[in-house]
Amino acid sequence: MGLYLLLAILAFDLVVNVSANAEGDAVYALKTNMADPNNVLQSWDPTLKNPCTWFHVTCNLNNTVIHIGLGNANLSGNLVPQLGQLPNLLSLELYDNNITGAIPKELGNLTSLLNLSLSMNRLSGPIPDSLGNLKKLLVLRLNNNNLSGNIPMSLTTMASLQVLDLSSNQLTGDIPVNGSFARFTPRSFRNNPGLNPQKFPPPPPRFQIAPIPSVYSHIKGQ
User: Fold this and answer.
1) CA 11, CA 4: separation in Å to the nearest integer?
2) Cα dihedral sign for 47, 49, 50, 54?
3) What's the sign of the alpha-carbon dihedral 152, 158, 159, 163?
4) I need a labelling partner for 42 at 20 to 30 A (CA). Which of 36, 103, 129, 214 fits?
5) What is the tens place of the pLDDT at every residue in 86-113?
6) Which of 88-97, 162-171, 189-198 has the weakest average pLDDT?
7) DSSP code, position 127
């Protein structure tokens, strides 16, 4: 019985370490694509078993990555598709840096994500349609970048979305007003010269009720 218990513990430890190493590789890929003049990523050591001891990375009790917080860190470089390999990630904050290039479509694989904050960078290209897969997302901040193209209609299917900021980009086309977007005001889309004004659905028709003649006019007519 003791042997079976020992084997089970070893097997569990192996699974945890393999998972942690895979997540560590995914997170470390971000470092390899970043210039880091302030050495905020100095603790990101790929020889460690998992990334849970790295600064700016938070893990849960199962040693899986749930938060990456690198806002205002003076980083530059590109986002990497490997970030989509963090299935339990709840929050990705890379705002107020000098990150360039496109938003990887693989971020749409982060189906546990609640917060995606990539504002105040120099990101370019379209907003990936795949972000519509983030059905649990509460906060989406992509403002103050150089994003272009249309706003994907898939984003309107994120029923949980409470905060949306796409302002100060180069987006074009119509602003969706259906689904979750019905709750957002023009403030979420301002400073996009190529966006058309919001086309709200017309109000329901008002029935015209003929005025009822007064008793006095009726008597006068006789």
Assistant:
1) 10
2) negative
3) negative
4) 103
5) 999 999 999 999 999 999 999 999 999 9
6) 189-198
7) P
